Amino acid sequence: MTKYHPYSKPDQVEALKFALLRRVAAYCMWLHAGLIGVFWHLEVNILALVNVGSVLMWYAGIKLIDASKPSIALRVFCLEVAIHATLVCAYLGMSLGFQYYLWTVSCLMLLDYQLRLRNAVIYSVVLITLFAVLELLFGDVAYQYRYQQLIPYVHFANVLICGIPMIYTISHIRKMTVQQRDKLEELAAHDPLTQMFNRRYARELITHAKENCISTHSPLCLVMADIDHFKKINDTFGHDKGDQILKSVAETIKAHIHPADIAVRWGGEEFLIVLAPCSSGEAMQRMEKLRRAVETTSFENDILKVTMSFGVANWDPSQTFEVVIQHADAALYDSKHSGRNRVTAAPILRVSEGVS
Ligand SMILES: Nc1nc2c(ncn2[C@@H]2O[C@H](COP(=O)(O)OP(=O)(O)OP(=O)(O)O)[C@@H](O)[C@H]2O)c(=O)[nH]1
């Protein structure tokens, strides 16, 4: 069951998870190989034989992971743990703590995203139920072999060996999940070309900026800015150069705004800038400075000159966002029709004429 295109790369968290699983499986295989000798020495030959089977199952699981079948491998490991825990508890009792491995694999089952959640939960519940059943069935079985004095230490070691892989795996998955969440948030909020906020995400920020300015009785201004004759730039220098210019202009805008301001790629070569808090007079001055910075940026060894037109509107708290955008758009339209490369204020404000 894949949500992705067949050619898409495997999910990063999945890849990491199965690399970890392979490493843990290799440790387990060697651990069981060691247990063959231990049980042989204790003269519990049946368990020595069981461990030969365990080694084969862990080896088969590793091969399944290598063959890109990690989900089946995980099920083989769970089966091995269930059989091993049951037989060890039946022959040696519960005091050694081999039953705790059921907890570890029941948690790992939940991390197999290729299993439907319902099935993963069922497998996990079965494993935990087996743990409870072992307690009921073999709670009274006493360990009767050599080295009885070592029982508390074996128990102690088993608790650690069961717990540490859980902590290790879950902490890694958590780290990867947080990284992926941050990346997704970044992608959802930004325009990929300019890394400015995109239109959808900016609406939320702008609403908060307006609320903040209302509560602090601060002025708020909204600016529509558009690159002049951008079609001609694309037609003359190519679309890739056009993209580079868009990026460069976006960087210039970002360098001219304050941390609380909001810069948005509003459309193709159109930008929205919310200056909050900012009076209309200050907004005019700051946009004039930005206009000059864009105009003086050098492109293609000065063969290419890029300019921008601006429309500045003061946002009266009684106005909706749509209304103030219309005012800024109308001012931008005036800038374009007065010769471009200038900053124009929406009605009530004065016009700052730039050098055309
Ligand atoms: N390179 C590039 N071009 C884009 C992008 N988005 C929109 N455009 C182009 O931007 C141009 C906008 O052209 P117009 O709306 O006619 O505006 P203009 O040529 O800038 O003219 P004025 O705004 O009147 O000065 C179109 O040719 C679009 O194809 C983009 O992401 N990259």
TrEMBL record:
<feature type="transmembrane region" description="Helical">
    <location>
        <begin position="77"/>
        <end position="100"/>
    </location>
</feature>
<feature type="transmembrane region" description="Helical">
    <location>
        <begin position="120"/>
        <end position="138"/>
    </location>
</feature>
<dbReference type="GO" id="GO:0043709">
    <property type="term" value="P:cell adhesion involved in single-species biofilm formation"/>
</dbReference>
<keyword id="KW-1133">Transmembrane helix</keyword>
<keyword id="KW-0548">Nucleotidyltransferase</keyword>
<dbReference type="GO" id="GO:0005886">
    <property type="term" value="C:plasma membrane"/>
</dbReference>
<keyword id="KW-0472">Membrane</keyword>
<dbReference type="InterPro" id="IPR000160">
    <property type="entry name" value="GGDEF_dom"/>
</dbReference>
<dbReference type="GO" id="GO:1902201">
    <property type="term" value="P:negative regulation of bacterial-type flagellum-dependent cell motility"/>
</dbReference>
<keyword id="KW-0812">Transmembrane</keyword>
<dbReference type="InterPro" id="IPR029787">
    <property type="entry name" value="Nucleotide_cyclase"/>
</dbReference>
<feature type="transmembrane region" description="Helical">
    <location>
        <begin position="46"/>
        <end position="65"/>
    </location>
</feature>
<dbReference type="InterPro" id="IPR043128">
    <property type="entry name" value="Rev_trsase/Diguanyl_cyclase"/>
</dbReference>
<protein>
    <recommendedName>
        <fullName>diguanylate cyclase</fullName>
        <ecNumber>2.7.7.65</ecNumber>
    </recommendedName>
</protein>
<feature type="transmembrane region" description="Helical">
    <location>
        <begin position="150"/>
        <end position="170"/>
    </location>
</feature>
<dbReference type="InterPro" id="IPR050469">
    <property type="entry name" value="Diguanylate_Cyclase"/>
</dbReference>
<feature type="transmembrane region" description="Helical">
    <location>
        <begin position="20"/>
        <end position="40"/>
    </location>
</feature>
<keyword id="KW-0808">Transferase</keyword>
<dbReference type="GO" id="GO:0052621">
    <property type="term" value="F:diguanylate cyclase activity"/>
</dbReference>
<dbReference type="Pfam" id="PF00990">
    <property type="entry name" value="GGDEF"/>
</dbReference>
<feature type="domain" description="GGDEF">
    <location>
        <begin position="218"/>
        <end position="348"/>
    </location>
</feature>
